[in-house]
Amino acid sequence: MKLDRRRFLSVAAGAVAAPALMSCGDVTLPANGVPQSDFDEDSTAEEVTEGIDLKGKIAVVTGCTSGIGFETMRVLAKRGCYVVGTGRTLESAQQACSRVPGITTPIQLELSDFDSIAACADAIRSLNSPIDMLICNAGMRGGERETVYGIEKHFVVNHLGHFILVYRLLERLYLAWQGRVVVVGSRAAYRSAPREGIEFDDLQAAQHYSAGRAYAHSKLANILFSLELARLLKGTRITSNSLHPGVIDTNIARNESALARGAFGLWTRLAGKSVEQGAATSCYVATSPLLGSTSGEYFEDCNAVIVTGDNHMHDQDQASRLWLLSEELTRDYLVKIERPDWNEFENGLRKKRD
User: Fold this and answer.
1) Which of 82, 167, 174, 209 is catalytic?
2) Rounded distance, CA 83 to CA 129, Å?
3) What is the pLDDT of residues 78-120, one digit of tens each?
4) Among this protein's residues, is 174 annotated catalytic?
């Protein structure tokens, strides 16, 4: 029976779990100059936010309908934050928000549809309020190769969709006392991404495709996007950081085969985190008073780390190139980024214009 179980895990979960287990020589070390927390892989979102009062703060959490997105929204609202939660449909976002004690607003966001992203950003901007936390949590993994806007779907949903959303909401973050962009990435970015990093010449994944590879490629894009955003925002009160939440059995694997989903679920129960633990790093990076000036870092288990080895996790050249390419690919959906004129605002709200 034990042999059958090992065979089941090694064969059926290979396409899903094995890439996350491969180290490929990469080692994580504490990041220099970043305060170290007392939290670790066992900490929960409630524990890392204990004693933090978020009354008067506004957060946007994408992918709030289940998993770590829902737990992130629930805990932030529990601490007094007003949370805007997005779902692929308005109905799913409404159902999730209705289950959370506190103040929440549901908004529809389909990250594979750039018009939907623009409409979502416009709806959030219409609240006419600062954004203190923008948590880019939603994502997809799995399925056959598919292109959207002529680009491989994982890259569109996981990276370009959030790129547009952040771009269109930056003004709202400027208005916050200390705005934070939190990008949920994955260890897959350095364990399973292409050796050359971002495949600038094959964003369609026409030459090499597997769901795991495409997912890792998009997660590397997430982390490089956060890195470049931090560089561009240097000297402002906005920070940008990325993270790996841990391996959690959530709906992100909904596009995998039934066998792979079952194996992944079993593996996460044996060696992964709970949803409550999975949301901890997102909540920590979004709220910790220790991180007010921390930007451009990558976090695992509630602490900033440097990933050594043959990877592109801290590749500033690729990050800058990716930003320019992302602007080119989404140009029709971007807005001009300007720091707001503070004379137009009073108590954080824009005055009515004549």
Assistant:
1) 209
2) 12
3) 999 999 999 999 999 999 999 999 999 999 999 999 999 999 9
4) no
